[in-house]
Amino acid sequence: MAELERRQDRFPVPSAFDYAPAPESRDIVTLEEQYGLFIGGEWVEPRSSEFEATVSPATEEELARVAFAGEEDVALAVDAAREAFDDGWSSIAPSERAKYLFRIARILQERSREFAVLESLDGGKPIRESRDVDLPLAAAHFFYYAGWADKLEYAFPNRRPRPVGVAGQIIPWNFPLLMLAWKIAPALAAGNTVVLKPAESTPLTALLFCDVVRQAELPPGVVNIVTGDGRAGAALVQHPGVDKVAFTGSTEVGKEIQRSVAGTGKKLTLELGGKAANIIFDDAPLDQAVEGIINGIYFNQGHVCCAGSRLLVQESIYEQVIAKLKRRMGTLRVGDPLDKNTDVGAINSKQQLEKIRELVAAGEEEGAEIFQPACRLPEKGWWFPPTVFTNVAQSYRIAQEEIFGPVLSVLTFRTPDEAVEKANNTPYGLSAGVWTEKGSRILSMAQRLRAGVIWANTYNRFDPASPFGGYKESGFGREGGRHGLEPYLRFE
Ligand code: NDP
């Protein structure tokens, strides 16, 4: 380990407690050397004959080689999904569909440690998060939608809900298994079959999920997983046999997808980027708010579309909040994702690290003041220390663009009106946080903020029953809750 120290003399921070390493054993995970595609309930070799390595971002170790699907492979997967749809999945008793979903939820719970270790290995997120957040939420999603499968007539009374057909689903690398659950659970509950493409850098939990699909004895072809890069994603979006496209990822690719499905009649939901404001009023419980700020931006290394990446602090408490925040940042432990004491893990990929570095350099050049607590970063792998920028103007790139890393930009405000104006001054509209002890202020802020999700006196809290989605360039359509079923249904 090389010591990388960046200290800010004006704000001495306490050093983190020394903890003995507490690594989670990786023995529970059995990796194949090479993975094919999961089509029609079988592992098949890709017609493309292409394979690429997936690596651990914490060590750069090659974990496995994974198939890269071509157009022909994607077409086979769509055909398998269509066949499964026509041959029974769309017409079996909804209570039977529910049983499969319950089964999947229970298997995910039973195998949660295996999935959590694999998620942290492949994606770099701390095991504490994959174990305590990703896995319980993924299982909860299947439980939740299992409950809706035989109640669709009650969920949408007098509208005769029917499945759409084959869903083409494309997910990103920040919450690989959880995004898979967000996509697959409502689609199956509504009676659709799916072809899902995981992100290139984090395919392994989706591939392990194929084993769960088999264990649950889901009929072949109901769930198909095609690994690959953006070309496979584009082929899936463009395939005429796909009836509904669901995408989570960058705004740029989202726009491309919207253009490509325009006029085809395919249903579309897009869950894209964000640049959320986390707003702290002077009557907020400050210690709790500081925890909320930390959780809002450093959870999952800031690779979170709804991350509270713009902190808006009321001017009268600015000095106090910043001092507390810097002190708390000094106690964050950055390092081995498999260590149970780790708070901030590895950056998901080299490309993402480069993007973060570029935007941080832009912030420094534009005149913002940077603070990073003293911390040791491992020599191998991709890492970035928790970072906060003060003296940020609204026009700076770090206040406008999604950094998708552990980097916070701080702005100030004097009045609620100014807070609303600054919070809404973004092309995005996915989420926001409000910290105040006044309930009436929470309600009035929630009405005026243009964001799909608004947390009050908490941040980054998720529940399968609660719809999630954005406004403006953050996309459209909702995932989660009863609303999350609607994109997977047509009404007669
Ligand atoms: P992308 O939007 O490129 O990736 C998301 C998914 O879409 C991946 O599975 C990707 O495959 C696939 N994909 C890529 N190109 C296409 C295409 N033309 N048609 C269909 N599917 C496609 O995100 P990146 O991984 O490149 O990340 C870039 C930036 O996007 C991040 O820095 C961050 O700002 C933002 N982002 C936002 C996310 C969110 O949750 N809102 C999630 C991830 C990223 P492949 O992995 O092979 O490229």
Report helical residue fraction: 25-40%
- Helix count, per DSSP? 15
Low-pLDDT segments: 1-10
Secondary structural class? alpha/beta
Task: Let me know the average pLDDT.
Answer: 96
The largest pleated sheet is described as:
7 strands, mixed
General shape: globular
Radius of gyration: 22 Å
Tell how many strands the DSSP assignment holds. Answer: 20
- What is the distance, rounded to the nearest whole angstrom, between the alpha carbons of the first and last residues? 62 Å
Small-molecule binders: NADPH dihydro-nicotinamide-adenine-dinucleotide phosphate
Widest sheet, order of strands: 14-15-16-13-12-17-18
What proportion strand?
A: 15-25%
Q: What does this entry look like structurally?
A:
By secondary structure, the chain is an alpha/beta fold. Helices cover 37% and strands 17% of the residues. The chain contains 15 helices and 20 strands. It has helices at 71-89, 94-110, 112-123, 127-148, 152-155, 176-189, 204-215, 230-238, 251-261, 286-298, 318-329, 350-366, 397-400, 416-423, 439-448, and strands spanning 34-35, 37-39, 42-44, 51-55, 62-67, 161-163, 166-170, 193-197, 223-225, 244-248, 267-271, 277-280, 310-314, 369-371, 387-390, 407-413, 431-435, 453-456, 475-476, 489-491. Helix 1 (71-89) crosses helix 8 (230-238). It is globular and about 65 Å long. The N and C termini lie far apart (62 Å). The model is unreliable at 1-10 (pLDDT under 50). Bound molecules: NADPH dihydro-nicotinamide-adenine-dinucleotide phosphate. NADPH dihydro-nicotinamide-adenine-dinucleotide phosphate (NDP) binds next to helix 8, helix 9 and helix 12.
